[in-house]
Amino acid sequence: MVTIIVRSFNDIEYIETTMKMLLEQDYDEFEILNVDSGSRDGTWEVIRKYNADNAYQIKSSDYIPGRVLNEAVARANGDIIVFNNSDCIPQDRNWLKNLIKPLLNAKVAAVFGNQIYRPDAHSLVIKDMVRAFGDGRESKNWHHFFSLATSAVKKSMIQEHPFDPDIQYSEDIEWSYRMKNKGYTLVYVPEAIVEHSHNYTIPQVYKRFHGEGVAEGKIYGFKPSLIRFFLKPFIMEFLRDVIWIAKRNEYHLICQSFIYRLVQKYAVNRGISDYSKGIKR
Question: Distance between CA atoms of 200 and 173, rounded to whole angstroms?
Answer without folding.
Answer: 21
